[in-house]
Every structure is written in C-alpha cells, then in structure tokens.
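Summary for the steering committee. The consortium agreed at its last meeting that each partner would contribute one worked example illustrating the joint modelling workflow. Our contribution is presented below. We chose a case with several input lines so that the handling of multiple components could be demonstrated. No manual editing was applied between input and output; the record is shown as generated.
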Amino acid sequence: AQKITQTQPGMFVQEKEAVTLDCTYDTSDPSYGLFWYKQPSSGEMIFLIYQGSYDQQNATEGRYSLNFQKARKSANLVISASQLGDSAMYFCAMRGENNDMRFGAGTRLTVKP
Amino acid sequence: EPEVTQTPSHQVTQMGQEVILRCVPISNHLYFYWYRQILGQKVEFLVSFYNNEISEKSEIFDDQFSVERPDGSNFTLKIRSTKLEDSAMYFCASSEVRSTTVNYGYTFGSGTRLTVV
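What follows is the complete predicted structure of the assembly.
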C-alpha cells in the first residue's frame, strides 16, 4: 500500500523568503511519480511540479523545486522568493505502478507581507 | 490549453435524492478519475476508469456510487441516494496515459461542490 505523509498542517513564511514544505512517502513499487499540487481558496487543483523515481536530478519549475531524497523517501517542495499569491493549500501526491494517484493531507501555506 | 470541464460548479440536493455529476475529460485522454474532498480535508481517491470499465475503486466507492461514460465524451459520477456526509467537492481528472516514469500527471477539473441538505 502507498502512503503519503505531510506533517505540516500549516506553515507561515515572510514574503520574498524561501519555504520548504515536507512530504514523505512509502511504497514498495520500484517506479513511481511524485507530484505537487496547489489549491488556492477558489478550489481548483493546479499542477506545480513532477519528479520521477528514476530521475537523477531534482525537478525545478520556475520558483518551485523538488528536493528529492530517494533513500529517505522524501520529496519536499521548495518555493523560493515567496509571493502573496502563493498562499494556498499544497498537496503532495504519488502515482505507483498499479495504483492511481494518492494525496497527502496537505499543508496550508500563508505568506505574510 | 485543453481543460477538463465539470458541471455544475455547485449543486444542492436533498438527502436521499440521486445526483449526477458531469465531466468532460480532455479529448485524447484515456484514463479518467473521480476524487472527493470534504471541506478543508485531504483529497480522496474514489475511482479510476479505463476502456469503459472501472480499473480501481476505493472503499469510499460503495454501491451508492456509479460511473459511466455514456457517449464517448462525458464521464459521469452518480450518487444514488445522497447522505449528508456526501457533501464535498468532487473533482474529475483525466490522464493521457498510465505511467509513473514520465510526467503524465492528471489534469483536474475545477470541481463540483455538492451540498446535501
């Protein structure tokens, strides 16, 4: 069975600073994909970044980067230069070989001006 | 950019009534999904659908739920007899392929907020 754990229910960050949102996972699948989604107050799910389990390099997408530590089974999201518009719920998710995408409980990020 | 379209955006229904939530996935996508998010809580997997049949379902997806792709474009979720605890945001998603090693992530619709009174 797969398990996604986000241990930070809420995080605060000062505008223009960097913040790390934690995500750990557990799977026995040899290959899997890790995703981060942003959910603003309007409710839609916005894809941010993807990391494949065989990728040698950490994924980056603009101000988003994924700190992938395979041996520790962690896939933390780093947001650099936080903006007020980054305030939202952030979900870590995983697709395994035989399962469909499963989500963590989410972290509510608040960016302070 | 292609979108997954969900209708209605908000539906209010009385307990015990049947509801049908509608989704139009992206046209060249082959895998379809429904997820549920009770307000402020995690996004929960309900069901996946491929080649006109359910490929996987969660323990939430009991006999009260059914899915259908009636006409090759729409993908529907039916709740036969709604309960108060069915109140949630329901997300439809679609995916081009089923792959873990390539970024074939899901495209989510904007959701239908179901309120059971």
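The radius of gyration of chain B is 14 Å. The interface with chain A takes residues 33, 35, 41-45, 48, 55-56, 89, 91, 93, 99-103, 105-108, 110-111, 113 of chain B (CB under 8 Å).
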